[in-house]
Amino acid sequence: MTTPNLEVSQLSIAFGQGSSRVEVVKQANFGIGKGESYGLIGESGCGKSTILRAVAGLNPDYEGALLIDGFELPRRRSKEFFRKVQMVFQDPYASLHPRKMVQNVLIEPLQIMGLDRRQERIDTILSDVGLDQSFRFRFPHELSGGQRQRIAIARALIVEPELVLLDEPTSALDVSVQAEILNLLNRLRRERGLTYLMVSHDIAVVAHMCDRVAIMKDGRILEKLTPEQLRNGAVSEAYTSDFLAASAPAVVRAG
Ligand SMILES: Nc1ncnc2c1ncn2[C@@H]1O[C@H](COP(=O)(O)OP(=O)(O)OP(=O)(O)O)[C@@H](O)[C@H]1O
């Protein structure tokens, strides 16, 4: 078997001290192959985003190991890490600086990483996310929610990462644009050979996007499924059946 792009090994994360200490992720284990799309799904508060944030280096306080290409990540992430791993957040309204023009949003990661051919890279990424060059000169308040999320995706991909962490990337968007953004993410993964780790509470979204899915409950990974098992309900755990049944309208939408 080839080395997974990302390996999560015995990951445990707790918040608080003493009697108020709560373990919100409990010994999570999973691996994601290069070019694969992996989904973490479960009820609100089950610990999905906490895992994603730990991988992103936003929460260095964890037990266990996180490995990229077989190498354990240091708790303090390096610049090289952010070249390889980028994150797209849930809310494109909050994630873009209101006073920065789009071209400044896009040039910043190139400057930080010391990458050349900056104007050419901006041209390419804008057209790859489906926006014309006039968008360079717009401010976030001049963009729709979907356009903002396209810019957030462009900002993540402009440094040519391998692994992209997607934290509910469409849940803040109008239903009419959610499918557009998901299809864009699918196309970009295919074209660029990207690996995705995606968090969602929406079964339809992960069934559409992911090659494999882990169901979480109370900080534990309860069960790992294929999208087919998600759609036809062929699961082992009673909790997963209940979770799928409660989300039935969403599964029907996945078609
Ligand atoms: N910095 C923090 N300090 C204390 N508790 C936290 C912190 N971050 C998360 N938690 C708690 O950890 C638990 C898991 O949160 P997390 O955001 O990972 O859940 P989630 O499954 O992603 O839910 P949602 O879909 O609602 O975002 C929650 O009970 C949350 O309140």
Characterise this structure.
The chain has helices spanning 48-56, 79-84, 92-95, 102-113, 118-128, 145-157, 175-192, 203-209, 227-232, 238-246, 248-254, and strands at residues 6-15, 22-32, 37-42, 63-68, 71-72, 85-88, 163-167, 195-200, 212-217, 220-225. The strands form 2 sheets. Strands 6-7-8-3-9-10 form a 6-stranded mixed sheet, sandwiched between helices. Strands 2-1-4-5 form a 4-stranded antiparallel sheet, covered by helices on one side. The model is unreliable at 250-255 (pLDDT under 50). Strand 4 (63-68) and strand 5 form a beta hairpin. The protein has one domain: P-loop containing nucleotide triphosphate hydrolases (Rossmann fold, 3-Layer(aba) Sandwich). It is globular and about 50 Å long. By secondary structure, it is an alpha/beta fold. The longest helix is centred in the C-terminal third of the chain and has 18 residues, at 175-192. The protein is 40% helix and 24% strand. It starts with 5 loop residues before the first strand and ends with a helix. Bound molecules: adenosine-5'-triphosphate (ATP). Adenosine-5'-triphosphate (ATP) binds at residues 15, 24, 42, 44-50, 201. Keywords: ATP-binding, Nucleotide-binding, Transport. One of its GO terms (molecular function) is ATP binding. This is ABC transporter ATP-binding protein.
